[in-house]
Specification:
Elements lengths: L8 H13 L3 H8 L3 H10 L1 E4 L3 H5 L29 E4 L1 H20 L9 H8 L7 E2 L3 H9 L5 E2 L2
Antiparallel strand pairs: 1-2, 3-4
Helix pairs in contact: 1-5
């Protein structure tokens, strides 16, 4: 039923259009053939918050709207939008796609760049696998710290 590939710009545009139309999450997921969870995560990840100045003009106190905590997460088709003094939340497909492409390219660049790759030689790998000197020492507990402070050494070898 679902294709397990990355979202395309066209699918993101369909998400944006579906949010403006007020489609249910299940209907939207069937339209673009993606999991409802994928769509929900996409919207939450790429929400754009626009600060509202409506409370300054109306004299009403600014509050956090509870509609942003669940799907659709945006104010596009909200019935309370005209009188709401809360900040506005929107989803823009082109901005989301641009952010996704930037993340994808930086992730891929980090993997293929030899200067940033961690190069561990075989001798370093062997030294990492052998137990170090610290494993021979037991760090003192809170009760033995007081006793150890009286003694000359704060570390005691393991038995």
């Amino acid at each position: 039923m679902y294709d397990f590939k990355h979202l395309t710009l066209e699918q993101r545009m369909d998400i944006q259009l579906g949010l403006k139309e007020g489609l249910a999450l299940k209907d939207l997921s069937e339209r673009i053939r993606k999991s409802p969870r994928t769509i929900s995560q996409e919207i939450r990840l790429h929400l754009i918050r626009k600060e509202s100045s409506k409370s300054e003009f109306n004299g009403t106190p600014k509050f956090a709207c509870s509609q942003h905590l669940r799907y659709p997460f945006v104010c596009d088709a909200c019935p309370f939008k005209p009188q709401c003094a809360s900040d506005r939340y929107t989803y823009d497909a082109k901005t989301a796609d641009k952010a996704y492409r930037m993340t994808l390219s930086t992730t891929r660049r980090g993997r293929s760049n030899p200067s940033t790759a961690s190069c561990v030689t075989s001798s370093q790998r062997a030294s990492l696998s052998t137990p170090s000197l610290r494993s021979k020492w037991r760090w003192p507990s809170a009760t033995s710290t007081a006793i150890a402070s009286v003694q000359t050494s704060s570390r005691q070898p393991m038995n």
